[in-house]
Amino acid sequence: MTRYGFLGPVGTFTQAALAGWPAAKGREQTAFSSVDKALAALREGEIDAAMVPIENSVEGGVSATLDALHTGDPLTVVGEVLVPITFVLAVRPGTTRDDVRAVGTHPHGWAQVRGWMGSELPDAVYVPTLSTAAAAADLAAGLVDSYQAAVCAPVAAQGTGLQVLASDIEDRSGAVTRFVLAARPGELPEPTGADKTTVVVYQYDDHAGGLLELLEQFAARGINISRLESRPTGDVMGRYCFSIDFEGHVRDARVGEALTGLRRVAADVRFLGSYPRADGQQASIQLTATDDAFADADRWLADLRGERTH
Ligand SMILES: O=C(O)C(=O)C[C@]1(C(=O)O)C=C[C@@H](O)C=C1
Fold first, then answer.
1. Degrees to nearest 5, angle at CA 274 with 273 and 279
2. Which domains does the chain have, with CATH numbers?
3. Three-state SS for 9?
4. What class of enzyme is it (predicted)?
5. Which residues of the chain have pLDDT under 70?
6. pLDDT of 22-80, one tens digit each?
7. Cα(67)–Cα(114) distance, rounded to whole angstroms?
8. 248 near 283, Cβ under 8 Å?
9. Is the CB of residue 105 below 6 angstroms from any atom belonging to ligand 1?
10. Which residues are paired to 166 by β-bridges?
11. By alpha-carbon position, which residue is closest to atom 9 of ligand 1?
12. 237 vs 174: CA distance, rounded Å
C-alpha cells in the first residue's frame, strides 16, 4: 500500500496538490514540516511517495525542492499536479489591521503578496515560516508572538478558526504552483503522448558555449524545454548545474537521442523521471522528430553499414 507524505501541516497548498492525486485517496498521508524532511523519509523508506512544490508561476522554482531532489540517493518524479493559488490575510479573532506589525508566511507566499503588503500594510515586517499553513496553525494555537497575521490559503484560515481580514491578496491573480510526486526509483510511468521529463545536468567545466552545447541536444531533436534553471552545485563559487524540464518521455526516440547526446557532452546527467503532464497537453512533434523518423534514419544507417538483416 502506497504511503504518501506531503509538506504540511493540514491546509498547505501541497496538501491540496495531494488531494488532486486520485491514487492517494483513502491512503495513509503524513504531513512533514519541510520538503527536506519529506524527501528524507521517502529515501529512508518510511513513505513511498512525497508531494512537494517545485515551481510557481510568479516566483519561479522552489530551490529547497530542486536541491533536495538532485542531491542524495536518487529519487524520481512520477507525476505532477497544478494548484491555483490564492491567499488570505488571517488573524486571531479580535485582532484588527492596526494590530498587525508582522506577518508570518512561507517565503514563496510572501513573494506573491509583497505588492499588496507594501500598499496595505507598509509597516508590517515579514516573518518566514515553514509553510503557509504552519504560519496559520501556530498563530491560531497562540504559539507565536513574533507575528500577528498569517498569509495562507483560505482553507488553512477556516481549518484553524482564524478570522480573514482580507481575501485575494495575491499580486497576480491566476497564479499556479506546480507540485511533483517523488518516489524511489522503480517502474517508469508509461508514455502518454503528453509527457514531461526532468533532468539535472552537470558540465565538465565552465567554457564559452557550454550551455549552448547542452541546449543544442534538445533543439536538434525538436524538443521543447519548459523550465531551465541554474542551481549552484555548492562546491565552489560560480559552479552551476542545470535543472531542466522538457516535453517528451524517455521512451520517445527523440528524447532518448537527446539524453545520450547530453550524456556525451556533460560530466553527469541525473535523470529525475518521465511522467504525464498535469495539463494533458500533447507534445507538438515536428515530422522530422517522430519515432518513425528516428527509426527510418536508424534503418538507413544500418543499410549503409551492411548490418540490416530484415
Ligand atoms: O506553504 C504552503 O502552503 C506550500 O504548500 C508551499 C508553497 C511553495 O513552496 O511555493 C506552495 C504554494 C504557494 O506558492 C506557497 C507556498
1. 125
2. 1-84+176-186 (3.40.190.10), 88-167 (3.40.190.10), 188-310 (3.30.70.260)
3. coil
4. lyase
5. 1, 309-310
6. 999 999 999 999 999 999 999 999 999 999 999 999 999 999 999 999 899 999 999 99
7. 25
8. yes
9. no
10. 89
11. 53
12. 37
> Residue 232 phi/psi, 5° resolution?
-65, 140
**ipTM higher than the 0.90 cut:** yes
> For residues 50 and 72, what is the distance between their CA atoms, to the nearest angstrom?
15
Looking at ligand 1, which atom is closest to the CA of residue 7? 5
Q: Give the residue among 89, 28, 82, 90 at the shortest CA–CA distance from 57.
A: 82
Is ligand 1 within 6 A of the CB of residue 53?
yes
Q: b vs e for 263-278, b when ≥16 Cβ sit within 10 Å of the residue's Cβ?
A: eeebeebbbbbbbbbb
Q: Is the CB of 156 under 6 A from ligand 1?
A: no
Q: What is the 3-state secondary structure (H, E, C) of 152-216?
A: ECHHHHHHHCCEEEECCCCCCCCCEEEEEEEECCCCCCCCCCCEEEEEEEECCCCCCCHHHHHHH
Cell (9 digits) for 18: 495531494
Sign of torsion over alpha carbons 192, 196, 200, 201? positive
Q: Is 129 in the pocket of ligand 1 (CB under 6 A)?
A: no
